[in-house]
Amino acid sequence: MHVHNYEKLWLGASLLLIVGFISTIVYGAVGAGVVMVNDEGGQVNPSDLANTSGFDDPGVTKVGPNEYEVHVVALRFAFQPGTVEVPANSTVTFYVTSRDVIHGFQIVGTNANTMVIPGEVSKITVNFDEPGEYGIVCHEYCGSGHHSMAAELLVKEPSNFTMQDDTQTQTSGNGTTNATATPTGGESA
Ligand code: CUA
Fold first, then answer.
1. 141 close to ligand 1 (CB < 6 Angstrom)
2. Protein residue with its CA nearest to atom 1 in ligand 1
3. What's the CA gap between 133 and 44, in Å, rounded?
4. How far apart, in whole angstroms, are the C-alpha atoms of residue 166 and residue 172?
5. What whole-number distance in Å separates Cα of residue 10 and Cα of residue 35?
6. By three-state DSSP, how is residue 19 classified?
7. How many A from CA of 146 to the centre of ligand 1?
8. How large is the average pLDDT for residues 53-65?
9. Taking the mean position of all CA atoms in its chain, how far away is CA 175?
10. pLDDT tens track for 118-134
11. CA 13, 19, 22, 23 torsion: positive or negative?
12. From CA 184, how far away is CA 167, in angstroms rounded?
């Protein structure tokens, strides 16, 4: 069978395109450091967060050398706590849940980004190498105050950092038990 040269050219070009598309998908899946948030964080009772370890006292807990956990409760229309302070050169794992409706949790300027679903705990681990200030925003429409739902994250020079409330170290030490989801945002900053 004779195949016209133009036909061969188009066949080759189509094949190249397909290989190119597959390459971009593979790169996006494994090469770009994107980690999907899964359900490893576990589940909680959204109407009983006051009695749920970790979320009963939202905030920062030191769990190891240069390792911190932050429990965050999202609600209409705020995050608790409204200001999170951690030192630079640290690995910070966020456990985020909602006590009312679906919210979003994005640390602006990083790839840490997850939905926040009542009853589910979203877990995101982020490395902060440099001091800086980040906004945290809700990116799921959650009601009339959605546009004002924000918090801030301050990554401080380690020499300037002190835990705001040492008692939290103990209260949240066991936060891991109910910590839940494991979506992982990945590295940033
Ligand atoms: Cu919470 Cu939008």
1. yes
2. 103
3. 30
4. 10
5. 37
6. helix
7. 4
8. 92
9. 17
10. 999 999 999 999 999 99
11. negative
12. 27
Q: How far is CA 38 from CA 74, 84, 89, 116, 146, in A?
A: 18, 24, 26, 12, 25
What is the 166 CA–ligand 1 centroid distance (Å)? 30
Q: Are 83 and 60 in contact (CB under 8 A)?
A: no
Which ligand 1 atom sits closest to the C-alpha of 116?
Answer: 1
Ligand 1 centroid to residue 159 C-alpha, Å: 34
pLDDT at residue 121, rounded to an integer: 94
Ligand 1 contact, 73 CB (< 6 A): no
For residue 188, CA distances in Å to 44, 45, 72, 136, 154 come to: 28, 30, 19, 14, 14
pTM: 0.74
